[in-house]
Write a structure and sequence with these properties.
alpha/beta; two-stranded antiparallel ribbon; globular
């Protein structure tokens, strides 16, 4: 394994190549050779996008007891007791900052966010330099950290160096696989990248989410959702994301956004852009979401909220023993203590209740359930 100094020097050498105009490309075929210096505007976009991938203000909103999100509902599905404990844990003093520090120890998280920020910036600005700057700024781990096995040997090609490589690789992928698409620009002039939305479901709950990118077809003007993922698998099957609850919800919100802008369409595409750290390649998985599927998502969301209400009413969130070890073979941090009373674990802590979503700085779009339903039924009428 390379020494810390050797790894660090390689990282900054690579950044020097990008930022100071070297024409060499040490990563081989199908990588971008663009070394055009980024403009001040492109650098500003890189800073904004990289910052949005770890927005603490957004995390504080998610910590409210009557706020749901894709990640929180996934946790509810895995183990209702885990969901209850995490909602309380998020409201401990300085828990948001502690969570951010914990993320710095998770190389998978750091790699995914760095690659995501980098390729989103590259797509929005057309600048490799800006994209790799965003990647570097979004890396929430020690700069010489890398994914290793139990013996300390490097594995999975996950490090800042390989994240920068992925951004460079994306230039070729974008030119060949996404040539018909461009990043949609909002009426405000802001590229539709890392957009936060909130939905008042008008039942005492609010649902929040983050859309990676909204794309627009260069010829037809149709909108599509870009959902970026990283994986350690060499190939990803359609079934991995085909029925994803996450992307389906995003298509409902994009439908409402399009309706506001006079761009409504009965069907929306969700383009999964998946980077395999093992194969060191991007893969495009397109899915079409129709009105029926989007209406089902709204019904499902209301059922999720009703389920949480029932748990609250009973004062009982059941444990799911099959989730004590997760899919990454990691033990739940609450194992061995989840049987304890909440007051013993979180004395005096209660989750706050959000009352309104209008005017929130961390949210780009807000809708009511009635507005989402109206957007779904507009063309039928």
């Amino acid at each position: 394994m390379e020494s810390t100094n050797t790894t660090r020097d390689a990282i900054f050498s690579r950044l020097d190549e990008v930022f100071y105009g070297s024409d060499s490309s040490s990563f081989g075929a199908n990588t971008s050779t663009d070394r055009t210096p980024a403009t001040a505007e492109q650098i500003a976009a890189a800073k904004r996008i990289s910052a949005n991938t770890s927005d603490k203000g957004y995390r504080r909103l998610i910590a409210h007891g009557n706020v749901t999100s894709y990640s929180k509902l996934s946790m509810l599905h895995d183990c209702p007791r885990l969901y209850e404990l995490e909602v309380l844990h998020q409201n401990l003093p300085a828990s948001i900052d502690i969570a951010a520090e914990a993320m710095q120890e998770n190389i998978d998280f750091a790699f995914g966010h760095a690659v995501g920020a980098g390729i989103q910036t590259y797509a929005a600005t057309g600048s490799l330099q800006a994209g790799q700057l965003a990647c570097w700024m979004a890396w929430k781990a020690p700069y010489d950290a890398e994914k290793t096995d139990a013996n300390g040997n490097a594995t999975a090609n996950k490090s800042l160096t390989w994240a920068l490589y992925a951004v460079e690789k994306f230039g070729w992928f974008m030119a060949n696989e996404l040539a018909d698409w461009e990043v949609f620009v909002l009426p405000s002039g802001k590229p539709a990248v890392e957009l936060a939305f909130a939905v008042d479901t008008q039942n005492g709950y609010f649902h929040f989410g983050h859309i990676d990118v909204i794309l627009r077809h260069r010829n037809t003007g149709r909108l599509a959702i870009w959902e970026g993922k990283t994986t350690g698998f060499e190939n990803v099957k359609d079934a991995t994301y085909g029925n994803s609850y996450q992307a389906l919800g995003y298509s409902v919100v994009v439908d409402a956004v399009a309706n506001l802008l006079g761009l409504a369409d009965p069907d929306y595409e969700v383009l999964y852009i998946v980077y395999s750290s093992k194969a060191r390649e991007f893969q495009l998985l397109p899915f079409t979401k129709n009105r029926t599927q989007r209406a089902e998502w709204l019904q499902d969301l209301l059922l999720e909220h009703a389920m949480i209400d029932k748990y609250k009413e009973l004062g009982f969130y059941p444990k799911r023993g099959e989730s004590c070890i997760n899919k990454y073979n990691r033990q739940c941090e609450w194992y061995g203590s989840c049987h304890m009373r909440n007051q013993s674990l979180f004395h005096g802590i209660e989750a706050p209740v959000l009352t309104d979503i209008h005017g929130l700085e961390s949210v780009d779009f807000s809708f009511t359930l009635a507005e989402l339903v109206a957007a779904q039924t507009k063309e039928r009428g």
